[in-house]
């Protein structure tokens, strides 16, 4: 069984891996990855709205991986609506990229669970193969962190390169056209970044667990045997 120092580090790594697993699940289940302000361009052009009047045509939008909502303003007050990405809206997006993001996140939390299992295995018994030792823990943490980073960068690519927010805002809008005034990444997106950072910390802890500290040994004093000791 590993020493107390290693077992403590493995317990900490397992706790962090479980926290990463929870963070990714929360991120996937919440609908606020991105928020933004949208302008009803068609309505503003119809009435030749000037700057003070544009506020009547500015709405809001938020969305995640599976759904979201928006408040559209086209001069007649705000109207709230909700939408789901699957099964219809995803066809208007870059379908393959959106599915890749979900796949990366699923792979990330699966690897985080594998890291948790390997840590528990290393705490309770001595590994009989190298892959079950610190090398295995490092491997799964590297995969989990890498998949979380890939998911985050893929989502950013969908937003910036494929106009994700604008496509969602104009979904099923046959009369009005909306343009994006402002975009902001929200908490669910940053949870994925935190998850990747957690696995980076885990890799550092695995490296620390391999450090062999010098053991302190008490030097035994040499006995000075004298003639008096022999007599007694």
Automatic annotation (TrEMBL):
Identification of the protein by name: Clarin-2
A Pfam family assignment: Clarin-2
Gene3D superfamilies cross-referenced by the UniProt entry: 1.20.140.150
Main location: membrane
GO cellular component: membrane
Key words, A-Z: Membrane, Transmembrane, Transmembrane helix
InterPro entries (alphabetical): Clarin
PANTHER family given in the database record: CLARIN (PTHR31548), CLARIN-2 (PTHR31548:SF5)
Compartments it resides in: Membrane
Annotated TM spans: 9-29, 97-124, 136-159, 188-208
The organism's place on the tree of life at top rank: Eukaryota
GO biological process, any: sensory perception of sound
Family (UniProt): Belongs to the clarin family.
Membrane topology per record: Multi-pass membrane protein
Lineage summary: Eukaryota, Metazoa, Chordata, Craniata, Vertebrata
